[in-house]
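ok here's the first one, seq then struct tokens
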Amino acid sequence: MPYDLFLALVVFAFVMACTPGPNNIMLTASGVNFGFTRSIPHMLGVMLGFLVLVAACAGGLGLVFTTWPALQIALKVAGAAYMLWLAWKVANAGAAKDGGGEAAGQPLTFLQAAAFQWVNPKGVVTALSGIALFMRPDHALTDFTIMMAVYTLATLVSVTVWTGFGVALRRLLQNPRHARIFNVAMALLLVASIVPMVT
């Protein structure tokens, strides 16, 4: 892969991974409500689920959606419903407890976080755009391998930073009223992120 194309891939991957989106909103909320350690399965699910999604897109998933538009509509409906459920879950999480205890409820599991990548509009756009922009047909295997390495690093940095940001906010949000405001705000942001998917 030429250096200029590689540099463009790195910038694209880090911008897409580290800017606010559904995953980062939920990871921040998880860091606040459940701490870093209990959020690790969620973090790993985001990473692995996204990488599997990228591999599927490289293998022709985009062509499947083009061939059967009804499948894309079904995925959008299922994705919107799932994101609304996740928003409800975030909005109803309790306050972080004094002394580093966790809020009531359960963090997202590895499988839930991995499955979410398939209905996350930002993730799907990132995967499909990356394939279209950075995989040259005559160097597909090499470019795909490099892309997966870059996406892995960018996603690792993103999930660590956003979960860590949530953990850093825990002290400010031990007051149940403050925690409630934060959780509802995160839920509303998550709901707002559905709009590009359904329009």
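and now the second one, same deal
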Amino acid sequence: MGKPIELTEKNLETARELLLRAVRVLDEAGIRYHLEGGTLLGLVRDGDLLPWDHDVDISVMAEDLPRLLACRSRLSGWKWIVRTRQGFVSKHPAVAEAPVRLVKVKDRVGLFFSGRMCLDIFVKVEHEGSVYWEAKDRLMRVDARHYRSFEEIEYRGKRLKVPNAYRDYLTEKYGDWSVPVKEWDCAVDERTLVEP
């Protein structure tokens, strides 16, 4: 979730718009996604995005990456720009062949939230009963059961996809997620880190 920053209601509304636009595009393209990280945590625990978070997080499975990349123009439009981060830093066999690890959507006209806010779409790879992904150049892993299907939660009149058994998933990632923590660094604090 990064270092806490002050967000205005206007900035939060922009983040909400970005989230809902992205999930609409993914749903229309038939791409299975899951809300991720602080976005999932905020919506489940607080019913809204975390006001101190600096990004919106979604994940897709690697097999859906070609369809996701085919939606680039629908994700971007006149207001947003889409970039990919190629290849995984980790040499773990689970991710060695994955061509893209992250798709990032940013404001085209100067980044809102003091240049820090964006939509991160993490590409996840299933391997031997676990799902792997990278964040901040660190490899993460959870049980694949969370990504083989999905549940839905309601947000602003929309049904959004979340990992299967999402409360257990949040516990796997954060431990006691009922207590708000404003300073969180996934490269250090994340409980799903794969040790080198």
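notes on #2: Strands lie at 33-35, 55-61, 80-86, 100-107, 118-127, 130-135, 138-143, 150-155, 158-163. The first helix runs from residue 9 to 28.
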